[in-house]
Specification:
By secondary structure, the protein is of the alpha+beta class. The protein has helices spanning about 1-15, 35-55, 65-70, 75-85, 85-95, 140-155, 260-265, and strands at about 20-25, 30, 60, 100-105, 110-120, 125-130, 190-210, 220-225, 230-240, 245-260, 270-290, 290-305, 310-325, 325-335, 340-345, 345-364.
Length: about 375
Amino acid sequence: MNNITSILLILALTAYAQQISVAVLPSDGDEAIFNNDDLETITNKMRSVALKTLPSETFTLLTQEIVVKRLGGAENFIKECKESSCIVDLGKKAQVDYVAQASVGKVREKMRIKVEVYDVSTNGLVGIYDGNGEYFDDYFVLLKAIDENVPDIFKKIPNAVPKAPVAKADTASVALKSEPVPVKEKGKRAWSVGIRAGLNSSYTYAVYDNVHNENGNYESGSGDYGDILGMQIGIVYDYALKDWLHLQPGLMYIQKGMNDSKSAEQFGDNGDWTGHYIELPLLLSLKLSAVRVNVGPYFDVCVECMSYDGDIDIGVNIGLGFDIGMFYIGMFYAHSISGNSNDSSEGWFDFYNRTLGFNLGINL
């Protein structure tokens, strides 16, 4: 199964390189009160705090150059930052997992500040610092407040604070307090639509009875046919039942089939038999930070079948995926349980599809 081995290797290497991405957007403020140097200094202070707070082995802080490039260049970057009223929208365009921004202003000659951190995938507000109700007389006192208070906001991002080990000998130790759960901001949508496409390797498992063998005798048994490469493409609808539990129905076109070496010998072809299906998966997705574990049934209708295929294929789909900003990468295994029966003069057969696939996608 060289095709399956290659798919698993690609996924393993991608998962190994997976990190949580964070972007600090340029600080927002009235240019009549705060000049560009003032706002840039506040942004740099935010970046410095993020670098000191977030562990480098788990998080990647995007440089401003990368964010500018992903937003379509410097001119478009400035336009987006001025016109967008939603930090999360900018985070999605920057293709990151979390996004942060500071905004500053003045009230009766005193300065105020607000820092927000959002989870881009859920639109959820992770944390906010608003000066704790205080106003600042001095610009440098404001910068000091960022240094002292904003680290607590970044620490609310999942995995930002390593879990402390539990002492084995001290049975009377006080239980560790859990990190606060990010709260979804009211009015934000809990659903998204995604596009998925990729390659798969499939084969057919067959159970047979009353079949003539090479010696002219009847026999019964079971076995696997060879595997072939196919593809799939479609859309998924993702609805968040909870922050950690999502429902994902979808509509896919998928190719499944097998390689029959005896057919190749008999007819002089390559022996590949490919069926074309419209698939309706219904998955439950367990979301652990950027990692997804997917499981659920699928219902296939064959629109162009080989002679051994039935019209319907029902089975179970399990998989593993990763959300990387607005992008998705994952794999799945589909196991047919319905069986496609074929009763002919050559004997009775029951065929079951087995499919291992690899998907890339984008969440809109």
